[in-house]
Amino acid sequence: MKKTIGIIGGGPAGMSCALWLKYLGFAPIIIEKKQQLGGLQQVSNFKNVYFLGLYGKTGYEIAEEFRQHIQVEEIPALLGSQVRSIVKNGDDFQIFTEAKEITAQGLVIATGQRIKGYEAIKSIEGSHELLSSQEIFFDPGTTPLLTPQMNDKIVAIVGGGDNGLLTAIYFSETAKHIHLFVPSQMLGLKVNQKIIYEKIEAGKITLHQPTIIQRFEVRENQIYMTFKDGEKPEEKLAFDSLCFRIGFAPNIEDIVQIFNEGKLGNIQRSQKGHIFTDEFLRTSIPQIYAAGDVANPRDPCVATALAQGAIAARSIQEDF
Ligand SMILES: Cc1cc2nc3c(=O)[nH]c(=O)nc-3n(C[C@H](O)[C@H](O)[C@H](O)COP(=O)(O)OP(=O)(O)OC[C@H]3O[C@@H](n4cnc5c(N)ncnc54)[C@H](O)[C@@H]3O)c2cc1C
Question: What ipTM, to 2 d.p.?
């Protein structure tokens, strides 16, 4: 009988792992908490340039292509389903979801990352006022890009990673002016930093760095932000729109709790919570593997997630 591998998370890494496992002679089953497979690509309206062969497709379209492939392969997926508990029974894992009990010989964690949202700024004075505004954007996938919505607006962007820099670059094409607030170091790719500095030279972007945000106020369709740049005196500016690009956090807390409750062992993680693996994606717990962004904070993208799905599957074949 084929060995069953439970894959928690149905983004690119989980789907790729399932596909490879199928052709390596296993019976994969994907457990996905959302109603659809696709992961973060499902919330992205960015047009692909990096992923070979799917030029110009949006994240939504890429997610759809991946989903169709999994469907054609008839790989089972429990959608809208979350693991409630896992216990070890000899060499097997008993995985309990709301709807189903699965006996599996191996587990792959492919739960990805989430976009940091309101919880990351809620300690700042006045932050609760932002929730009443239609002009606050946390999720890069749903922020209007190059649409008339940003025309002639003064836009503030908070964040110094690639998401922050790219948003500033996109919006600078149509917005009246961009204020880019970088809390400490600029972390985005050098190529993106270079474009930002060109836009600063051209007078399209003002850079605030290092900056500490002290207060928010929302009045008459304007968002007021009080901040302090380095040693400069405190300043207050008004914006039409405010976008937060403050990074990602691994989706792992509930899994760790389930592992602890099931006494499965201690899964080693980085300070920020990402799973540590060996180079072939074995975690610190035997028979448990990790793939994609949840274990790869350095290079999170579709190509690496797909590749890691394949590598984890091949490690499973080697180990079983
Ligand atoms: C706006 C945006 C634009 C992007 N643009 C690009 C791009 O142009 N090119 C590129 O290469 N990459 C891009 N990325 C990054 C890319 O989408 C990710 O690197 C990739 O999706 C990671 O795949 P993954 O499978 O590791 O994780 P994810 O895609 O995050 O998938 C993880 C899945 O696990 C599920 N899950 C989480 N916890 C649980 C749980 N407890 N139980 C069950 N299921 C769970 C989630 O619902 C999700 O479906 C972009 C990301 C964003 C947000």
Answer: 0.99
